[in-house]
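Slide 14.
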Amino acid sequence: MSSSVSPQQKQNKVISKEKAIEALWYKGNLSYKLHDAQKDMYKFVREHHEQILVIGASRRLGKSYFLLTLAFEECLRKPNAIVKYVAQTTKDVVNNIAKQLIHEITKDCPKKLLPKYHVHNAVLTFPNGSEIHFSGTEQGRAEKLRGSNADLCIVDEAGFCFDLDYIVTSVLFPLTTLTKGKIILASTPSKSADHAFIRMMYEAEAEGRFLKKTIYDNPMLTQDDINRIAEELGGKDSVVFRREFLVEPITSEQDAVIPEFDELIELDTVKEYNKPPYYVGYVAMDIGGKDLTAILFGYYDFANARIIIEDELAFKAGTLSDDIAKYIKEKEEKLFKDAVKVLRYSDNNNIIFINDLAIKHQLYFNVTAKDDKEAALNDVRMRIKSRKIIINPRCKNLIAHLKNAIWAKNKKDFARSAQFGHYDFIDALIYLVRNINYSFNPYPDSYSSFSVSEDQKSLIVNNPTPSNNNIDFANYMANRIRSISPFLRKTRSR
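Slide 15: predicted structure.
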């Protein structure tokens, strides 16, 4: 008996496969489209009972294809279902999802189930009344997702979305309170460790609602492919390969503003420090507009050539100068009551504000130089690297900014962070470090490191050198007039 298959039998098999696919579409089961790693993610979402799920996924894994397939299933299974699909920017939604992935997924879709994409409002509508609403997160665009209830919410590349915390808690979560719909966050790790997605990853992992898929889980890549990709990115130990393909939250040295402030440096330099008997106190302020007003309090240990940052203050935009002055005075009284003198420095971004501090509150800030910021920043980096800057553990904002600050795309400005603003404490640190008088010896000639009498200490503390409360007001005003004279001339010319 011949074992060959007739042409008619072959045709029947083809028809049988087409019918099977058609039946799966009508059931709303498209898992046959997924490879093994995508099926693991599919199983994770379908079988998990927690409402908010987080997936850390390697590049080239087909994450977006899986997420859109999940959205399709929701719409096919439930008439009049609403799915919210969020990506970083509107351009991502239109080019990478609406134009490309929808076409790929619907290649074998029965005509009666074929959805229609409406470009003008970025909505994909299904014949049964279900809809997928697409949106970017730039410039508050995700606000348009408010209104209707949602049966499923998906945030694609969540690690790069703007205002992720706000979008999840204030926009998407309220849409699912009645439907109990799931919220899926999927992404490679963010470049900056302070992005909300990194925190959400750790929280989800601790609570058992996190799934990680690395490049080694990708069935579409061979070991040779993986080796080639790693080599292109600087090796398997490179920051980019580890973050983008091994799903490790880590900031690259190219992106970090202070790459020297690693875990080892932090361990060595973030600590309590015994204050020397004689020192000059320094206050450095970076005035915020819409950002934080960041203020650092430190001193220079002349004998050991170390800068000690003792404390900090952070004020949100709109804080009154009366309140800021009050807290500055309290900190100085607590930290610098035995200082030889106290010097204050600030940027000149708000002339009215710093003049108000001087005239109304007798807090005189010298205007810091701001030229050659790159050199000033490099000086800070070198001192951090050589462990010449010691930071008290209570300076939580400064520590967080040093760890997480990354450059904007132009590599000239600091990037803006949803959690830490414009990393203003780094600028405050630059001002403090560049204005220290490193040659000034605060110790009296009679000082002995072996024995110092209280009288000798009193002599230097009561030295007529101007203190924080008796800086030469005339010199201060002369410096202030010089700093604002261009502004005055411009005003007169109007």
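Speaker note: The first strand starts at residue 52 and ends at 57.
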